[in-house]
């Protein structure tokens, strides 16, 4: 068969009953032609950026395998040997591997199956059905399961726990489910998503199951856990990790408080509230809380009651240095992960099943983790302070 075809020729041959794939099929030479054209364009682009004089220097040939058959691919060379093909890597021998990687990378960026199909068709001239793309992305599921069950470190200085909600189809109707996210900072100071869990409702009972799973996967101790104000959350944590200090998110508490304050009073109320959570010590904060109650208690008793009832866990951060306070007083660090999740899922109103959601979030985590290469700010000082504040609990892990 002629090894150079244009798309019209290929379509005419298919209509005439020619084989599409396999040996002597229509698509293999078409993919060959498209790939070689792309490589030529890539080399020409490379040559225009070269400072030293450089030019084309013939071609090399290698056998490529693809899902539609084998073909001999001619790869252009340059005289200086500085050109490194990117479309078909030096040791790559299978075209479909590259296409699958492209599909997965597009999927990890939140593209829909339709958008991925359009991209692949534009790049390679091959039409992939939604079912095919779904089959490719389903290859993530075993990796997801393995990741969910992987062993964890025995101790984490800091852990944040929060949930985000999505609509998922179940028994023919869409229901809201909570995705539970656990973000930890290890002894090396680097962030790590410890797990993703799915449940119909966010509640302390399910968090108890989540924490039990962390324990079963090797976590023996957590120094400080930062959480939102969900009722029963601190008790659930301490049921599995009795020595863990629980800090309720100050930002969540402020947001919940201001909902009950009339708009005309919010600015003044926030100014008085700031004196509490920005106080230099727990004692000073308690004096300001008393002042807040004296001034606003009759008008907004439900707000004052909430601060009083949760004060033990709202005020935990006052016992620590500024470096540690900055890390634990809010769950913003995990909410930023959830913002990344929302970017990935913003084009999806709902999901057909649990796996379709979890595999997308897993890919998002893998992308985010690539940037988590450095310890959090001022980590050496922070871990030294923790070793003193939590006497004996870090000694073995830090070889002290």
Write the topology of this structure.
Elements: H1 7-15, H2 27-49, E1 56-64, E2 71-78, H3 95-108, H4 113-124, H5 130-137, H6 140-148, E3 155-170, E4 173-185, E5 191-199, H7 204-216, E6 221-227, H8 233-240, E7 245-248, H9 250-258, H10 263-277, H11 282-296, H12 301-309, H13 311-314, H14 322-328, H15 332-345, H16 354-369, H17 379-389
Protein name: Mutator family transposase
GO biological process, one term: DNA transposition
InterPro entries: Transposase_mutator
Task: Report on this structure.
It holds the Pfam family Transposase_mut. Required for the transposition of the insertion element. This is Mutator family transposase. The structure is a single chain. Mean pLDDT is 85; it is low at 1-5 and 18-23. The chain is of the alpha/beta class and 400 residues long. α8 (233-240) links the parallel β6 (221-227) and β7. It has two domains: 7-140, no CATH class; 152-389. The strands form two sheets. A five-stranded mixed sheet has the order 5-4-3-6-7, sandwiched between helices. The protein has helices spanning 7-15, 27-49, 95-108, 113-124, 130-137, 140-148, 204-216, 233-240, 250-258, 263-277, 282-296, 301-309, 311-314, 322-328, 332-345, 354-369, 379-389, and strands at 56-64, 71-78, 155-170, 173-185, 191-199, 221-227, 245-248. The longest helix has 23 residues, at 27-49. α10 (263-277) runs antiparallel to α11 (282-296).
């Amino acid at each position: 068969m002629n090894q150079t075809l244009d798309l019209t020729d290929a379509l005419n041959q298919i209509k005439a009953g020619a084989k599409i794939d396999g040996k002597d099929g229509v698509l293999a030479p078409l993919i060959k032609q498209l790939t070689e054209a792309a490589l030529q364009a890539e080399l020409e682009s490379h040559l225009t950026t070269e400072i030293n004089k450089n030019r084309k220097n013939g071609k090399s040939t290698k056998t490529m395998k693809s899902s539609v058959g084998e073909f001999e691919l001619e790869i252009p060379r340059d005289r200086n040997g500085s050109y490194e093909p990117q479309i078909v890597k030096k040791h790559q021998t299978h075209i479909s591997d590259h296409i699958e990687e492209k599909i997965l990378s597009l999927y990890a960026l939140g593209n829909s199956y339709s958008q991925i199909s359009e991209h692949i068709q534009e790049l390679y001239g091959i039409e992939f059905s939604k079912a095919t793309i779904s089959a490719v992305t389903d290859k993530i599921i075993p990796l997801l399961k393995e990741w969910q069950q992987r062993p964890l470190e025995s101790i984490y200085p800091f852990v944040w726990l929060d949930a985000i909600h999505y609509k998922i189809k179940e028994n023919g109707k869409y229901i809201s489910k909570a995705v539970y996210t656990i973000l930890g900072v290890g002894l090396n100071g680097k962030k790590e998503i410890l797990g993703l869990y799915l449940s119909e409702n966010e509640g302390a009972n399910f968090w108890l199951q989540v924490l039990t799973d962390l324990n079963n996967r090797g976590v023996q101790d957590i120094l400080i856990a930062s959480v939102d104000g969900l009722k029963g959350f601190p008790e659930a944590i301490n049921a599995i990790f009795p020595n863990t200090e629980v800090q309720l998110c100050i930002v969540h508490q402020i947001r919940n408080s201001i909902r009950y304050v009339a708009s005309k009073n919010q600015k003044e109320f926030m100014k008085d509230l700031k004196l509490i959570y920005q106080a230099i010590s727990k004692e000073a904060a308690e004096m300001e809380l008393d002042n807040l109650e004296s001034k606003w208690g009759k008008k907004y008793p439900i707000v004052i009651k909430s601060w009083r009832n949760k004060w033990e866990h709202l005020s935990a951060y006052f016992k620590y240095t500024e470096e540690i306070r900055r890390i634990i007083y809010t769950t913003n660090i995990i909410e930023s992960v959830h913002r990344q999740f929302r970017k990935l899922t913003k084009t999806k109103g709902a999901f057909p099943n649990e796996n379709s959601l979890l595999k997308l979030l897993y890919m998002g985590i893998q992308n985010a983790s690539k940037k988590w290469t450095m310890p959090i700010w001022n980590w050496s000082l922070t871990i030294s302070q923790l070793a003193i504040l939590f006497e004996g609990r870090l000694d073995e892990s830090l070889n002290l």
